[in-house]
Amino acid sequence: MPRIRPEDSLLTVVVLGARGSGKTVYLAALFERLRIQRPDVGFRADCPRPQHDLLHRRYRQISDPTAEWPEATATDTIQQFQFDCRTANSTPALTMRYLDYSGELLEPAWSPVDAASETLLQLEKDIGQASALLVLLDGDMIGRWMRGDDAGIEYVDDILPGLLDYAHRGTGPVHFVITKWDLLCPSDTDDNNRLAEVRDHLMQLTNFRDLIAASQNQQVVRLIPVSAVGPEFLHVDRSGVQRKRTDPRKRIEPVRVEVPLAAVLPDVTAQLLAALTAEEQRRLRRARNLAGLSAAGRKLPLDRIINTMIRAVARRRGRAGFDIPPYLVDVILDQLDRRAEQSGRSDGRRESLEHLVTRLRQVVADLEDRMPASVLSQVGPHHG
Ligand SMILES: Nc1nc2c(ncn2[C@@H]2O[C@H](COP(=O)(O)OP(=O)(O)O)[C@@H](O)[C@H]2O)c(=O)[nH]1
Ligand SMILES: [Mg+2]
After folding, report:
1. Ligand in nearest proximity to the CA of 58
2. Among the four residues 47, 109, 178, 276, which has the most C-beta atoms within 10 Å?
3. For domain 6-269+365-374, is the CATH number 3.60.15.10?
């Protein structure tokens, strides 16, 4: 069987969020959760050195009670972060590339000249090809909106529509992340009940409701509440400004920041599978069985053939037109068969990928168990 090449194992996530919604802080907290293996995450990720240093430095700045928050990202820059994921010390099995666009791009005051800017055109292109979209909704603003506060209403009226327009253009899974969950959900409140309230409020917005309706059975859409700092680290002072706590016992503790990343691969494969007809699934299985049985078959670039077919299907269906890295084909077919590979191949990277996929699915299953309100749109069970 052809080896998985590192350059194939790439999923791209476009991160969208208005200025101040918590993107920079979120990405730093995400890397903090992933940079070492943690029992409650079950997988980890490395980052190329310069990005590693940048994210780590930012996180230390965030977690230092005496330091300022990180500076805002400048307009017109696209930052790229690459997370090489694996379980424990196995071979890196999956690379997730995050594209972080400056939040100012999403603000409505842009002139027609600006609308044709190269960065905006690149953004549209990236969204069209992205494996998944990560749309950050500012939890502070959503909370204010729910309380009838002017700043929150302004956010929902002026900023949210632009975000939803972009979300609408994605063909892969869409993960709406509610940032700053520590502000929205006090520790004595049930997370799922609170999330259901947020969801119900969002569903009152026509554009949001229509996006969810259009996604049913086509795209996976989730609503995932996260906090980069956890319930204890900040407090809001009398003038309404949030301050870091100086009490050293109040620890910073990111909550669920890794969940959106974990959901990308399971959601991409689920979405793709749902787009295949029963006949196409049969043909795929047959092609793989042939590859597994005959020594000659192994020499054929069968995964490429299969992948070409999957892409054709995806393109035909329109709503799933993202690129599928060839090595993912096996993962998809395993899901189709609902059983693990039994060929006894000992390719380290493949084995590592299987372990990783098991962990990722577990993280997603945990989220759905604990927070049923997080599921906005699912793809139907495929027909065997
Ligand atoms: N309470 C709380 N505040 C946050 C959190 N993440 C970010 N913030 C606040 O939001 C501000 C903007 O975050 P930043 O990541 O710079 O936003 P960006 O413009 O989207 O990159 C920060 O300075 C923090 O004050 C969080 O998880 N909880
Ligand atoms: Mg930023």
Report:
1. 1
2. 178
3. no
